[in-house]
Amino acid sequence: MTTPAAARRARQLEERRLRIVGAARALAEEQGWDAVTTRRLADAIEYSQPVLYGHFPQGRNQIVTAVALEGFEELAAALAPSALAGTGTDVERVRALVTVYLDFAERHPATYDAMFLLPVLVPFASDETPEVVRAGFEAIEGTLRRLDDPPADVPTTAEVLWAAVHGLVALRRAGRFPAVHQEERLETLVRLITH
């Protein structure tokens, strides 16, 4: 049985862990991941560096992983309505899915980098992949399964769709694709998936 004191202590530890992750994410979104150091995080949350290491013994990589997992949870929640929508046309559902994904990447570039570009301490595409990471992919699969004429191989099509959307994000952020044609790219991708 958990005592009230133990429950309070656990709650305080979780609140501190969330403050560390929130501070890391805010700092990364404002100044980039190079600005995220344990010293700067300790200053931001007004605790010592040993306190940070008490919560994240593996240091910065573990903090980046926590930010990535938080991002995956938010992205999955944002994509879920497209997978569950029983209304609208195929084009509308796929467009909504792609738009939500692109908007998430645009609004949270550092979090997106943590999710897909920086080293993290979780496996992908394996039985050990955390459920929170799988949920975004499952939302993409769910959207494809609800098409009037779903692809014969939904998992592979979902991988290709995810790769295409990620490519749009990466190439746009790198300045390789001008913003002026983003809507045309989106519509072309939607047509390729729905026709």
TrEMBL record:
Domain HTH-type transcriptional regulator MT1864/Rv1816-like C-terminal, first and last residues per copy: 94-191
InterPro entries, A to Z: Homeodomain-like_sf (IPR009057), HTH-type_TetR-like_transc_reg (IPR050109), HTH_TetR (IPR001647), MT1864/Rv1816-like_C (IPR025996), Tet_transcr_reg_TetR-rel_C_sf (IPR036271)
Gene3D superfamilies, sorted: Tetracycline Repressor, domain 2
Keywords: DNA-binding, Transcription, Transcription regulation
Ranges for domain HTH tetR-type: 20-65
Superkingdom in the source lineage: Bacteria
Pfam families found in the cross-reference section: TetR_C_33, TetR_N
Name of the protein: TetR/AcrR family transcriptional regulator
Naturally occurring in which organism (per UniProt): Cellulomonas fengjieae
Lineage: Bacteria, Bacillati, Actinomycetota, Actinomycetes, Micrococcales
